Amino acid sequence: MRFHFIAKEKANFSICRMCKVLRVSESGHYAWVSRPASQRQRDDRVYLAHIRAEHARNYQGNSMDRGLTIMSKDQIIRFKGDHAMNLISIFKMYPDQQACIDHMEAIRWGDSPFCPYCAGVRVARKKENRKVGRWNCQDCRNSFNVLQGTIFQKTKLPLQKWFLGIALMVNAKKSLSSCQMARDLEMNQGSCWYMQQRIRAAMASKERHFLKGIVEMDETYVGGKPRRNKRDDDPPKRGRGTKKIPVIGAVERGGKVVARVAEDLSGKGIMQFIKNMADTAETILVTDEYPAYNVLDRIMARVSVNHSERHVDGDVYTNTIEGFWSHLKRAWFGQHHHYSKSYMPLYIAEACWKYNRRGREDGFDGFFNAAMA
């Protein structure tokens, strides 16, 4: 409460004097200001940003604060649910650069802006004719904006294009090619590819899950069908033995999925993967008959299903993780057609991010909530 009071009254009194009067340390106040917001605070900022944008659009002449005071928490949630983030909603709520900046400032800072360089709170808006959203820090003398330290930093693209691109990507269940996005947004393909890779990098950086319970584990190979040699009567090889990129993954039934490009599909590599991704003491692992999985019997409970005999044996099956592989491969076949090994982790991260948020309508808000944290 005392830190809240200091932040509220810093325009009227010096922070040093208020800290002495309230008997709190000045360093403690600055640490409180620069600490990351909690998940609940970030959710509230998203709700508030939507309400302010909609209120400003519909009630230009009225006081925004007066409009906000009559809305309860349930009304806020209903408001958010009634305004799914599609392209039409983005055009209405974020028509220009200033509206986009205001939304991002509300999510990242709320009512307490701070300098991303020194975490100082003595900041003031900088008035420039051609740029919007610039701030000056009175402590370190740096100029900055809300994009500093995010995937949007130093972008030359209009923020509305970013908003539209993010909406297109999070709503595309089987991903979206850069060529298709270029046609939709009237941009060149290179800029769209650059935008998409930054979005995928943000999705990858926020995916941290530790699995437990009944966990299915499997490996797959992503790539095109091998060409058949006309001089060879043998059918082309599938999976192991081809030049396709191996991918290993695990999914908690009814829960999250994790997947990675596999550098090593031997017992040692599989052991390292499962130790990093699952609680071996509280997990029952379900695999197929691949012999490399046998090494996992030393550290955890495991059951397997022999796919040469059956695909389901009661509760023993790997259909869940295979369903995730189908989504990953549909994106390859239907949209991208080729993954280089260096960029493939980003495409896998996108597939995991969407799978882990299946059934939720807040993909756009969830992405911004994490990207601006």
Polypeptide structure, described:
- It is a single chain.
- The model is unreliable at 61-82 (pLDDT under 50).
- It is globular and about 80 Å long.
- By secondary structure, it is an alpha/beta fold.
- It has helices spanning 2-9, 15-22, 26-34, 39-58, 64-69, 73-81, 87-93, 97-108, 159-171, 178-185, 189-205, 267-277, 319-336, 344-355, 363-371, and strands at 123-125, 135-137, 143-144, 211-222, 245-252, 257-261, 278-287, 301-304.
Tell me the series of helices and strands, N- to C-terminal. Answer: HHHHHHHHEEEHHHEEEHEEHHH
Helix count?
15
Helix content: 40-55%
Q: What is the overall shape?
A: globular
Structural class: alpha/beta
Rg, Cα atoms, Å: 25 Å
Low-confidence stretches: 61-82
Largest β sheet strand count, sense and barrel closure: 5 strands, mixed
Strand content: 5-15%
Average pLDDT across residues? 83
Number of E-state strands: 8
Strand order of the largest sheet: 6-5-4-7-8
Distance between the termini: 23 Å
Helix-strand layout with pairing:
Blueprint (H helix, E strand, L loop, with lengths): L1 H8 L5 H8 L3 H9 L4 H20 L5 H6 L3 H9 L5 H7 L3 H12 L14 E3 L9 E3 L5 E2 L14 H13 L6 H8 L3 H17 L5 E12 L22 E8 L4 E5 L5 H11 E10 L13 E4 L14 H18 L7 H12 L7 H9 L2
Helix pairs in contact: 4-6, 4-8, 9-11, 10-11, 11-14
